[in-house]
Amino acid sequence: MRGSLSQRRVVITGIGLVSPLGVGTEQNWEAITAGKNGIGLITLFDASAYSSQIAGEVSGFDPLNFVEKKELRKMDRFIQFAIAAAELAVADAGLETDSLAGEKTGVYIGSGIGGIGSIEDNYRLLLEKGPHRVSPYFLVATIINEAAGQVSIRFRAKGPNSATATACATSTHAVGDAFRIIARGDAEVMIAGGAEAPVTPLGVAGFCAMRALSTRNEAPDKASRPFDAERDGFVISEGAGILILEELGHALRRNARIYAEVVGYGMTADAYHVTAPCLDGDGAYRAMKLAIEDAGISPCEVDYINAHGTSTQYNDKIETLAVKKLFQEHAFKLAISSTKSMIGHLLGAAGGYEAGISALAIFHQQIPPTRNYEHPDPECDLDYVPHRARPGEIQYALSNSFGFGGTNGALLLRRFSG
């Protein structure tokens, strides 16, 4: 390990997932391993004039299952997702709410964009009806750290409380930083991950203007196709992925189920471009390398990579290049998949969701598939586990996230063995 050998061990004991495949961890895992599609035409607003009219929406989400009606006006949709995923994660971990109260429990939840829907709604009120009609709860419903704030209030968690906003690497950084907080002794339990609700008129229009989104409007279920030669952009999606991280001794004392152990974390910058990844894959390469070095293992010990795999021309090619650069011949023995092929891109929530899926893959010894991988790309020539999940021995799994601004994160998880 790069850090102190006396660092405490950290394990994942709870997973809360909210995505276009449903609300609940078991429901998401079953759908992911079945290769189901969660992407369709946008229903949250009229997208008929947009070049991309498809998204991954959390259909049927009822915030009243998690939030009192009088509190909803204080929360943008991304905060509602965060609370739902946190509640699911806490229940999944078998933790009593009262046990989380106090200074030994922290919250680290981020978002890439935050409350863009609330910004749009209140700006419309400002223009149409004047400043006196802007909600007094506008700011608390909108700012990114209110997801972590609301979750900490919900569970009376008085320990470290923070939020990341590092684009698509947001919740990988949140989980990685939470891992560090427990490892150095500043908390026993961390509720960590990300939430995002960007499927709004302005959010989608912005990505359309960048020509970043798939325009396969006639076949939404085929639109997200990571590593496929006919990929034409990513699919914007919403949801949340929240994990319960615990100090190992704390988890063992309560006889908790342990999905996986967090053993490595790397974060780097490309220092290259505001949106495009560095063409030689250097930033992604170094993030993965640092995570592996953090764990004190060699690259050839990694069995599975949950790829960033966005379904864009540059990302998929450059991530493949970075994997080859780091793993050399072992790259062709790795199982690699992108769960974005089924749910689209959750932006700031993607890393938390994908770390949760990686932990489940280790726990169940089951490798998720890459949906829609139909036309091999000569520049993407690794084993992307096409179409169907497969059983596989996974001792170590790497989860990658790379964001606008050239920010990169990688988490390394290990099968728990005592």
Largest sheet: 11 strands, mixed
Poorly predicted parts: 1-5
| Apparent shape | globular
Distance between the termini: 18 Å
Overall number of strands: 15
H-E order = EEHEEHEHHHEHEHEHEHEHEHHEEEE
Tally of contiguous helical segments: 12
Describe this structure in words.
By secondary structure, this protein is α/β, with parallel strands linked by helices. The chain is 32% helix and 18% strand. The protein has 12 helices and 15 strands. The strands form 3 sheets. Strands 1, 2, 5, 6, 7, 8, 9, 10, 11, 14 and 15 form an 11-stranded mixed beta sheet that branches. Strands 3-4 form a two-stranded antiparallel sheet. Strands 12-13 form a two-stranded antiparallel ribbon. Strand 14 (396-403) and strand 15 (407-414) form a beta hairpin. Helix 2 crosses helix 5, helix 6 crosses helix 12 and helix 9 (282-295) packs across helix 10. The longest helix has 17 residues, at 77-93. The radius of gyration is 20 Å and the shape is globular. Mean pLDDT is 97; it is low at 1-5.
Give structural attributes.
418 residues, alpha/beta, eleven-stranded mixed beta sheet, two-stranded antiparallel ribbon, 32% helix, disordered N terminus
